[in-house]
Amino acid sequence: MPSRVLNARTGGEVSVAGSPLATFESLTQAAVIAVMGVAIVVSNLLIIAAFLNFKGLSNEVINYYLLSLAVADLLCGLFVVPLSVYPAITGRWMFGDLMCRLVGYVEVTLWSVSVYTFMWISVDRYLAVRKPLRYETVQTRTRSQCWMVFTWISAAMLCCPPLLGYKKEANFDKETLICMLDWGTTYAYTATLVILVLGPSVISIVYNYFYIFSMKRKLNSGAPIHDKEYATALAENLANPSHWMSFILVTAFWLSWAPYTGVRLYEYFTDQELKIPMLHFGVVWLGILNSFWKIVILISFSPQFRLALRILCLTACCRTKGRLQAELIGMDNDD
Prior knowledge:
Blueprint: E1 5-7, H1 20-53, H2 62-79, H3 85-90, H4 96-130, H5 135-138, H6 141-158, E2 171-173, E3 178-180, H7 187-220, H8 228-238, H9 242-270, H10 279-288, H11 290-301, H12 303-317, H13 321-328
Antiparallel strand pairs: 1-2, 2-3
C-alpha cells in the first residue's frame, strides 16, 4: 500500500488505479464530499439569513456567537470542502503547493475559531446563571462583538506560522482527500497551539457547564436560596432552552472530532498506521460534517431560531408587506 501522505508539489505523479472498483470508490467519495459541501453552505446561509433578518435575535448575546460559528462553517463549506471534490476523482492534488498550504491554514484557523467560540458560549451561559440579576450589564452586545473580533484575529495569528514558512511543505492526504498540516513534525508549535487553544477552551467548557447543571440540580432539589429575587431570576434563567441547546452544540462538535482524534493518537503512540479501508476518510469527514449539524440542533432545541426561520420563509414568500404582517399575527417565541 502506498504512503498515505504525499507532497502537494508531486501530487501529479499519483493517480487513482484504473480498476472499476477504484473508480466507483472515488466517485462515491466525490459525491459524498459534494453533497456535504452543498449541505454545509445551504444550512449556514439559512442560519446567517435568519439571524440577520429577525431583529429579535439581537436581544440575546449568545446569538452573536452562534452567528460567528455559522460564518466559520460557511467559509469551510466554500473554501475547504469544494477543493476536495476533484482530487477525490483523480486521486491527486491539482492546485499547487501554495493552495495546499493555504487550505491547511484555513482549516486549522476555522477549527480554532470554533473552539474559541464554544468557550465564549459556555462563559456566556455561566454568567447568565452565576449573575442572573446583572447579566445584561455584564454581557453586552458590544462586548460580545469585541470578543468575536478578538477570536478571529487571535486564531488567524496563532495558526499562520505554517503558512509563512515555519513548515515549508504542505501535505495532501490521498486517503482523506484533503490538505492537512502535519503537526507531528512541528512539536514545539503544536504544543504551543494546544496550550493556547485547546487548554483554556476545554477547561472553561467543562467547568462552566458543570456549574450550570449543578445549579439546575440544586434548584430542582428544592435547596433553600435565601435571596428570593436572586432565586426568581435564577429559575427564569435556567428555564431558558439556550443552556441545553448550547451544551448539545458543544457536545456534537467534540463527538464529531473524537474518532479522528482517537485514530491519530492511536497511530502516534503505537507508531503504526491503521489499514482499515475508508477509516481515515470517514473520521476526517465526520469531523467536517459537524459544520452541518448546527442547523439541526438549532431547529430542534431553539424555539427562537424556529421563529426566526419561519419569519425568514414568510419574508421570502410573502411579496406584500400587508400579507407578511397578517401572517405574523399570532406567532410567538414558543413557536
